[in-house]
């Protein structure tokens, strides 16, 4: 298995602005750690808009097989966190999978 990411798995969700901070704490505690243990890397993002907070999580994978092993099935299927229905305005229906065409990073 290569240690170079070739695939990005992208999840997006949004909350009302008044629960954005609480969801961020929840996402960091419950959603990110499993990815940190399994994926080559993970980056959570947050964008605050008027009345809403948008969250995007990108995880990086060496191949399709490793994503499938992590999700125990189809990688585009969303596996919602237990409290997502409480926080999210709507439950995302799918995950985006993108091939990484260029990986240009400045490493220390």
Structure overview:
With 108 residues, the protein is of the alpha+beta class. The chain has a single domain, classed as Alpha-Beta Plaits. Helix content is 29%, strand content 31%. The chain contains three helices and four strands; from the N terminus they run E-H-E-E-H-H-E. It has helices spanning 20-38, 64-71, 84-87, and strands at 7-16, 41-49, 52-61, 96-99. Strands 2-3-1-4 form a four-stranded antiparallel sheet. A hairpin with a 2-residue loop joins strand 2 (41-49) and strand 3. The radius of gyration is 14 Å and the shape is globular. The two termini are 24 Å apart. The relative contact order is 0.28. The mean pLDDT is 92. It comes from Mesorhizobium australicum (strain HAMBI 3006 / LMG 24608 / WSM2073). This is Antibiotic biosynthesis monooxygenase.
Please outline the helices and strands.
Elements: E1 7-16, H1 20-38, E2 41-49, E3 52-61, H2 64-71, H3 84-87, E4 96-99
Antiparallel strand pairs: 1-3, 1-4, 2-3
Looking at the structure, what is the overall shape? globular
Query: Main beta sheet, described?
Result: 4 strands, antiparallel
Instruction: Give the topology string: H per helix, E per strand.
Output: EHEEHHE
Class derived from helix and strand content = alpha+beta
**Rg computed from alpha carbons, rounded to a whole number of angstroms:** 14 Å
Enumerate the strands of the largest sheet in spatial order, edge to edge or round the barrel: 2-3-1-4
> Number of folding domains?
1
Q: Any low-confidence stretches, pLDDT <50, length ≥5?
A: none
Helicity level: 25-40%
Organism: Mesorhizobium australicum (strain HAMBI 3006 / LMG 24608 / WSM2073)
Protein name: Antibiotic biosynthesis monooxygenase
């Amino acid at each position: 298995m290569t240690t170079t990411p070739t695939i990005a798995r992208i999840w997006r969700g949004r909350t009302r602005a008044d629960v954005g901070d609480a969801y961020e704490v929840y996402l960091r505690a419950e959603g990110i750690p499993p990815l940190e243990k399994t994926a080559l890397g993970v980056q959570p993002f947050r964008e605050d808009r008027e009345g809403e907070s948008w969250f995007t999580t990108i995880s990086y994978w060496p191949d399709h097989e490793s994503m499938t092993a992590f999700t125990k099935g189809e990688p585009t299927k969303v596996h919602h966190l237990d409290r997502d229905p409480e926080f999210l305005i709507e439950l995302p229906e799918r995950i985006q999978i993108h091939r990484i065409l260029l990986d240009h990073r400045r490493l220390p």
